[in-house]
């Protein structure tokens, strides 16, 4: 009798851990990745150029390896879409639940010796960022949250995380608004958008910290008319949504997540967007 050859068994991903357990794991992972980033910068950097001419360093790659290993351990089977892996052509298939990782957001600031660089880990469920952690290794600022449990901020000193302080976006002001904009990627279109508002204060910031400024109630609007990728925004949008804000495209729709129509790395490219706290953006 000829033996029957069965196809290989594909196991489904295990259920996600409880949100508070997952957040604790993401915090610990971001701190480990941040420590590696600072250690490599202290030792001296060798900067390379990727195919899109953006810079990449050993710190990007080591931080991503740390994060990927940790996510595979805490959420086995959940796909991890990470910037450097995608850049190298390793793009996993995703379903309705997956992680988006930017191990070192703000590499240009990092290379220049600035402090506005972050570790970004976001979880997308059903097309929406729902859990996020952003860590600023150079300053010790830590932000996190989930759409189920709200947003918070804390400070890391000597590896110890302070008690978490809840964050909430502020109400739309009746007069001039405060706008936060990119430090290294301002475009004419972004400036044209800003010019449509009565601006009280314009703050320049790098990396995903701009989302956290809105979530903490320290500004009202963040317009981005330029190239970003989903790993740049997922963690920040999750935290902003948890604090009561939102992110919309230029036609007022939610920012989409998941592979788009383009092939390769472009599949995760964002359209232009506006992030807001408690106010309605001007959409045309």
Q: Which helices and strands, and how do they pair?
A:
Elements: H1 19-43, E1 48-49, E2 55-56, H2 58-74, E3 80-82, H3 83-87, E4 97-105, H4 107-112, E5 118-125, E6 128-136, E7 141-146, E8 150-157, E9 160-161, E10 165-167, E11 177-182, H5 188-194, E12 199-205, H6 209-215, E13 221-224, H7 230-242, E14 246-249, E15 273-276
Parallel strand pairs: 3-4, 11-12
Antiparallel strand pairs: 1-2, 4-5, 5-6, 6-7, 7-8, 8-9, 8-10, 13-15, 14-15
What would you call the shape? Answer: globular
Number of continuous helical runs = 7
Mean pLDDT: 90
Structural class: alpha+beta
Low confidence ranges: 1-10
Structure description:
The chain is an alpha+beta fold and 284 residues long. It contains 7 helices and 15 strands. Strands 3, 4, 5, 6, 7, 8, 9 and 10 form an 8-stranded mixed sheet that branches. Strands 13-15-14 form a 3-stranded antiparallel sheet, with helices on both faces. Helix 1 runs antiparallel to helix 2 and helix 6 runs parallel beside helix 7. It is globular and about 45 Å long.
What characteristics describe this protein?
single chain; 284 residues; three-stranded antiparallel sheet; alpha+beta
Describe what is shown at a glance.
By secondary structure, this protein is α+β, with helices and mostly antiparallel strands. The chain is built from seven helices and 15 strands.
